[in-house]
Design brief:
5-stranded parallel sheet, 10 helices, 37% helix, binds iron/sulfur cluster
Amino acid sequence: MTKPPLTLYLAAPRGFCAGVDRAIKIVEMAIEKWGAPVYVRHEIVHNKFVVDDLRAKGAVFVEELDECPPDRPVIFSAHGVPKAVPAAAEARQMTFVDATCPLVSKVHIEAARHAENGLQMIMIGHEGHPETIGTMGQLPEGAVLLVETVEDVATVVVRDPSRLAFVTQTTLSVDDTADIVTALQARFPQIVGPHKEDICYATTNRQEAVKTIAPDCDALLVVGAPNSSNSKRLVEVAARAGCNYSQLVQRATDIDWRAIEGIRSVGITAGASAPEVLINEVVDAFRDRFDMTLVPVETAKENVEFKVPRILRVPA
Ligand code: SF4
């Protein structure tokens, strides 16, 4: 049987970012250094495949620090943790390694600096996301106000409109965040903040690549986890850029072939925590069913690399 023709646009950059790469390395190096089990507070990065792989190597994933025995090392996930978490680990004299992405740590420092200067903090982020919890947790409870939408900006109640600063989650939609920042600046003209927002290079680049290919795609699939913020944003970006069908898939078995019957073009990308092996699996699934022409579309070059913490670079 002849296969139908299909053009597959493979977005780049896609998949792993420097922060995810570093966090995974930290867990692997910790297991090598201290032996199994090594505890990890929260999924090290939001991807089941990555987590299962590390679990098989000797990592134990928990949600709270008190689930870790005090005599085993614990690693904090790439999303960052409230200040109280390392403080509690220190109080229990635990060995811990912080795998918070340096670009998230930068936001933590920004928030603390503004608060020290007497400014009230507003965070643009998603309620309940571990990164938002971690960033807001750099300051005492109630000190940081959260806004999620332009509508929230209209109702947020501040102490002094002339003494405000804002930070953002690193994995937001660039366009939505620009609208929220504009609304904040319109309501509070003296608000202090980063040049644009704190969205990281990886989030920005992946969204840009999707915007480039989406208008040419009958369908666009984002390889990523349902709890991955930057992956979910890519699905929205594709829809807004004009693609009629954009979906998140964790791996090839999630593809809804019926829903995309008759397509002539498809775009593939992946969130920052999705490994390349899963992207290849999805591409291969299309190759099996279609007479496929693969078109790589690279909209930016990435060469960012982060060092692992010193504690892992010195022998045990
Ligand atoms: S998505 Fe951005 S902030 Fe998050 S881990 Fe990757 S580089 Fe760091």
